[in-house]
Write a structure and sequence with these properties.
single chain, Dna Ligase, domain 1, 4 domains, two-stranded antiparallel ribbon
Length: about 375
């Protein structure tokens, strides 16, 4: 049934056969007039050659339609990514450049027969080894894409975020970065250029490859809204912090420690400082203000950096996150440990753990041990 329905809809094939039959008929009439031969014999020859020609065309079309024309490495998934505004020639070039099609001419011919050359649709399409031209073109014509598993993590800056997303999507990093810095656009989501990255919570999301930058923000907003359940909102309000402020604090906590069990403790310490209006004095905010994340030891000169993100110079939270906060970091803030610590220092073991203190005197002892170990290891 598939084969029959294909030919019923192939106008070019019908037109071609009609023209051939007409030409044969004209030739037959001319010969009849010229030679005055037997009508029956000529009619038989005419029918015979018409049948032969029709069968030949039928077989050839069956061959180019249904012969396997896609070959990829065994067990390897392959994809064809067609950008917006691509022409039929662009699609052919993509197939040739990536060596996905064995017989390009057959693909072109079937594309014309099925009118795909006039209906190019952008997207990311899975190409399976052994597919024939009819199967391939049917997928491309329908726009039946294979979604991208979009993922991003360990992101510090908007530039890094835009680059990571641009590597996985049709939308380029520039278009994404422009929106991350577009105040008017971000106002639609109650964000600004300082807080825009809080909309992106690291996870794996299924999206179509040809999603636009604007559509991506809309999708991330839906995921963001789903993440911020009523329970999480209530916990944030109890601190009290807004959702973007929670992301800002979470970003600091995650930069302070990779130890997930320590994060609620660190979050509790910073919340204690916020409540007594004590500067957070978080070293990671200084690195962010300087734009240098390779600094291993914060010196007094670094602390004088003039920036709204420098929490040694400014009381309260920075204007926005200093990295893309993860769900774990956000939950560490929302479920912070209740204690009286207001001082914290990295442990002299340099294993990512921290020592906490209530008094300045106790903190100085911890800090001295840490500084001594840095000197021993020649970390300046």
């Amino acid at each position: 049934m598939l084969f029959v329905s294909t030919f019923i809809n192939v106008k070019t094939y019908a037109y071609f056969c009609t023209q051939i039959i007409n030409l044969l008929y004209i030739n037959f009439r001319m010969k009849m007039t010229k030679k005055q031969t037997n009508h029956t014999n000529y009619l038989k020859k005419y029918i015979k050659w018409t049948v032969y020609l029709s069968i030949s065309i039928f077989v050839y079309l069956a061959y180019i339609l249904f012969m396997p024309n896609i070959f990829t490495k065994a067990g390897e998934k392959s994809y064809l990514c067609i950008p917006d505004s691509s022409s039929f020639g662009d699609v052919v070039n993509l197939l040739e450049r990536e060596s996905k099609v064995t017989n390009t001419l057959a693909f072109k011919q079937v594309s014309i027969l099925l009118q795909y050359s006039e209906k190019i649709r952008s997207g990311r399409y899975e190409i399976k080894s052994g597919m024939n031209n009819f199967q391939l073109i049917r997928i491309l014509r329908s726009g039946r894409q294979t979604p991208v598993k979009l993922s991003f993590n360990n992101i510090r800056t908007k530039q890094q975020l835009a680059a990571r997303l641009g590597m996985q999507l049709m939308a380029d990093s520039t278009s994404i970065l422009n929106l991350l810095n577009d105040s008017a656009f971000l106002s639609l989501y109650n964000l600004n250029p300082n807080t825009s990255i809080s909309l992106f919570i690291p996870n794996t999301y299924e999206v179509f490859w040809n999603i636009t930058a604007e559509e991506l923000f809309s999708r991330m907003n839906k995921e963001y809204s789903a993440f911020w359940t009523d329970e999480r909102k209530a916990k944030a309000a109890a601190i009290p912090l807004t959702q973007t402020e929670v992301s800002s604090l979470a970003s600091i906590v995650e930069e302070e420690t990779n130890n997930k069990t320590d994060r609620p403790m660190v979050a509790g310490l910073y919340i204690n400082r916020l409540r007594i209006k004590m500067p957070l004095q978080a070293d990671p905010t200084v690195k962010f203000a300087l734009g240098d994340f390779s600094i291993k030891r914060i010196l007094f000169g670094h602390l004088r950096t003039n920036s709204p993100f420098n929490t040694y110079q400014n009381i309260g939270l920075p204007p926005g996150p200093i990295r893309v906060a993860t769900s774990n970091g956000i939950d560490a803030v929302l479920n912070y440990s209740h204690h009286n610590y207001i001082f914290m220092c990295a442990s002299e073991t340099l294993n990512g753990e921290h020592k906490f203190a209530v008094s300045w005197e106790e903190h100085k002892i911890n800090a001295a041990k840490y500084q001594k170990e840095l000197n021993v290891r020649k970390i300046f």
